[in-house]
Design brief:
The complex is a heterodimer of chains A (111) and B (113). In chain A, the strands form two sheets. Chain A has a five-stranded mixed β-sheet with strand order 1-9-8-3-4, with no helix packed on it. Helix content of chain A is 0%, strand content 45%. Chain A has no helices and nine strands. Chain B is mainly β and 113 residues long. In chain B, the strands form two sheets. In chain B, strands 2, 4, 5, 6, 9, 10 and 11 form a seven-stranded mixed β-sheet that branches. A four-stranded antiparallel β-sheet of chain B has the order 1-3-8-7, with no helix packed on it. Classes of the chains: A mainly beta (111), B mainly beta (113).
């Protein structure tokens, strides 16, 4: 099964770190983990991706376990504008492959 | 850098009709993927185009078809529309390399009545 597993919803206080978990226990060696978020009525926005090592960019950090069976997206200082549905996906984006999206995690940031 | 643009933003069609949705890729991207997103669900992969050919397809019937043009823009065509085709249709572009992330447009909201 190429899907990932995420909790349906999470809450976070504004200014605190939001840690969003994802399980991808059947991930293949050549598959990357990608994170996207979707704000109502917009297309999914790319956040970050990784293969084995932890990654950080201006939006977030991605922590991947050593066995690559799970990962955590960290938003270090959540704001109200981070309220969105967050999708963890996996894929190799080689010819003919596709990113498989589940239902994602609805993150609600409150003041 | 121009992002992915889709047209139209909204569309209403009647069951049995045909529809064409359009997508312009982000500058420098040569691969286009189309996704269908029903209300409350994650995006579902329809197909992918590279070098003007379909090179991957999800679990969608043949009445869903597409084209990619030399400038890497793309069209999604749906024939014999059904009520269940009502959804947000998303186009995403990328480089055709293993780690290149998809960059999505804001979609076309199709309503079939």
């Amino acid at each position: 099964d190429a899907k990932t597993t995420q909790p349906p919803s999470m809450d976070c206080a504004e200014g605190r770190a939001a840690n969003l978990p994802c399980n991808h226990s059947t991930i293949s060696g050549n598959e990357y983990v990608y994170w996207y978020r979707q704000i109502h009525s917009q297309g999914p926005q790319y956040i970050i991706h990784g293969l084995k090592n932890n990654e950080t960019n201006e939006m977030a950090s991605l922590i991947i376990t050593e066995d690559r069976k799970s990962s955590t997206l960290i938003l270090p200082h959540a704001t109200l504008r981070d309220t969105a549905v967050y999708y963890c996906t996996r894929g190799a984006n080689q010819a003919g492959t596709a990113l498989i999206f589940g239902k994602g995690t609805t993150l609600s940031v409150s003041s | 850098e121009t992002g992915v643009t889709q047209s139209p933003t909204h569309l209403i069609k009647t069951r049995g009709q045909q529809v064409t949705l359009r997508c312009s890729s982000q500058s420098g991207h040569n691969t286009v993927s189309w996704y269908q997103q029903a209300l409350g669900q994650g995006p579902q992969f329809i197909f992918q185009y590279y070098r003007e050919e379909e090179n991957g397809r999800g679990n969608f019937p043949p009445r869903f078809s597409g084209l990619q043009f030399p400038n890497y823009s793309s069209e999604l065509n749906v024939n014999a529309l059904e009520l269940d085709d009502s959804a947000l249709y998303l186009c995403a572009s990328s480089h055709n390399t293993p780690e290149s992330p998809l960059h999505f447009g804001n979609g076309t909201r199709l309503t079939v009545t």
